[in-house]
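Researcher: For the annotation table, I need structure tokens for Regulator of protease activity HflC, stomatin/prohibitin superfamily. Please keep the output clean. Sequence:
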Amino acid sequence: MYQEKIITPPSGYLTFVLFLALLGGGIFALATEHFAIGAIALGLNFILVLPGLIINNPNESKVLTLFGKYVGTVKTDGFFWVNPLTVKKKVSLKARNLNGHQIKVNDKLGNPIEIAAVVVWQVQETAKAMFAVEDYHQYVNIQSEAAVRHLANIFPYDNFEDEEATITLKDGAEKVSSLLEAELSERLSRAGIEVVEARISHLAYAQEIASAMLQRQQATAVIAARKLIVEGAVGMVEMALERLSEKNIVELDEERKAAMVSNLLVVLCGDRNVQPVVNTGTLYN
């Protein structure tokens, strides 16, 4: 595995002055019919001097190789001169966004879901990025998709079917993003890539089960609401019976208590307004 070696070449300004001097001397020699001297001066100028001049912009680097051997990496921005025989490859050090495609995968419980992630990454070690993998751009794309698939397989979408699940893809956004970032950092370290941030950008059930899951969520919400209504209604009925008994307003036998409880529960738990009926006779008619 290649380790990055940062080098600082000599300034290119003096070399550029030398280039201009040789260029002027060569032209002058040709003009004065000293063709051999002029040809040599211009040949050295355009073969050895000019090809060695490089400009390195901010947040860029130049990876240098000489006859197949890694020489070093120039990360300092500026104007430099390097060995003209070296091969110079530019590698950007800027942060980049990878907006992953929506992929269909099964979660921990086997439910098909659609998931996508946004990854912010940048090249940290240029030697690994250039020599450890074939194409580090493609490597980032493929490994990011693989990490998202693996993450979706180890967690359920929600805890409707797995109530013991402490982390879900839907509700554990911070924890899931942290795990995704850690896994991507491990996978991409081989290529000298640093993961700045990783977030789930899209999460939904697949279309073939989306309607069924929506109905299940609605049913769960209705059941929870009904449960709360019943608990409140039972408390109100219990309070009403206790207050009637304490105030000695009326004495009810067990049958009338059961009827009263039934009527109150119908009124309190029904989803429609109840029409009252006035009893003008006795309690038992």
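Researcher: And a one-line annotation?
Model: The longest strand covers residues 193-205.
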